[in-house]
Amino acid sequence: MFNFFRQNQKYEGNPTVLEARDLPSIAKYMKSDACKRVFIMNGAGISTSSGIPDFRSPDTGLYANLARLRLPYPEAVFEITFFRNNPKPFYMLAKELYPGNFRPTPAHSFLKVLDNHKLLTKCFTQNIDTLERRAGLSDDKIVEAHGSYASQRCIDCKRPYDAAKLKEKLFKEEVAHCENCKGLIKPDIVFFGESLPPLFHRSIPSLKSADLLIVMGTSLVVQPFASLVDLVPEDCPRLLINLEHVGDFGSRPNDVVHLGKCDDGVRELCRLLGWEEELEREWEKTKDTLERVSEDAPVSEKDKKKAEKEARAAKFREEVDKSEAELAEKETLKDEVDELTKEVEAGLAISDKDDSKANAPVPGDHPEPHSVKTEDSGEDPKGPDGKL
Ligand SMILES: [Zn+2]
């Protein structure tokens, strides 16, 4: 309620901590001793440039893509009651969204750079894609508010399930069942109607100690996540990097709104901090993450890919061999034609001397070209001692 009233209230006075409400002032503040504990809140917007569909954009978003799964309504895919009756749509979606298929974005690498500079206290993420981990952040820095693919368990007896096994099932488009009670297995992604992870609740009070809050790529509509922005101290600078203005940003004295793409925003901030090269270096490292992930893909999938690759290579070799054979055949033919031509020419030269051109012999009249060669030279290919 409080949030609702503040939403349209713009703070008109001077900033109390920052020099100005802009990105350069944030950078200056970050370099000062006053800024030691940075908190991050991020949403789907920081992952969109990696190719992961935004859950909420109407056209390109995930919900729009769900139409083909023939759900009664898109949100059903994340509803625990629907999942119990029909887990297949979720499994299809989970396969499509599997983390290994995507590379972290520069915005994710920015989190790692912050951590390198010992500034990052906690990153609260709404995303389930685990790209924060893949960008190099350690477990203790991440609070996955809506859970993630990082662990999985039975929805009935809650017994944890082996990650590699689930991955294999997902890629084979099979539903995994608990080995203990035959219940359905699901990654620890929070569904509608499920409570948020205990770690989320435990981590909330730490926001009171924030020196800076950076909010990136979120629409701030999903509660209770959205309300976290209000929990930092009143004077704590808050920076929003987002395509559009969201939440109550602008209502506090040290609020900075930087509209645009997350990747562009963090690049600009890093440039102001002199971290530009470090950011690109960290991002470059994430290239390998993707390769490493595809390497530890389930064995069956890996073998399948390997077999396909080998089949393609074999086919290619076959084609090359075939065309080489054809070429060799053509070469032989060419040699024969050349030889024939020579003989014809030789014949012509003779007949030129002896006779008129009109009586020039046609090739067929000539002795067979091969007969000129010694069919059997009588030479023994073996040496005198009978060895080659
Ligand atoms: Zn079970």
Automatic annotation (TrEMBL):
NAD(+) binds at residues 44-48, 54-56, 126-129, 218-219, 242-244, 262. Binds 1 zinc ion per subunit. Residues 311-388 are annotated as: Disordered. It catalyses: N(6)-acetyl-L-lysyl-[protein] + NAD(+) + H2O = 2''-O-acetyl-ADP-D-ribose + nicotinamide + L-lysyl-[protein]. Zn(2+) binds at C154, C157, C178, C181. It comes from the Eukaryota. Its EC number is 2.3.1.286. GO terms for cellular component: mitochondrion; nucleus. It is an enzyme of class 2 (transferase). Transmembrane segments: none annotated. Coiled coil: none annotated. Its cofactor is Zn(2+). It is found in: Mitochondrion. Residues 16-276 form the Deacetylase sirtuin-type domain. The active site is at H146. SUPFAM superfamilies: DHS-like NAD/FAD-binding domain. GO terms for molecular function: histone deacetylase activity, NAD-dependent; NAD+ binding; zinc ion binding. Residues 311-357, 365-388 have a biased composition (Basic and acidic residues). Keywords: Metal-binding, Mitochondrion, NAD, Transferase, Zinc. Belongs to the sirtuin family. Class I subfamily. This is NAD-dependent protein deacetylase. It comes from Heliocybe sulcata.
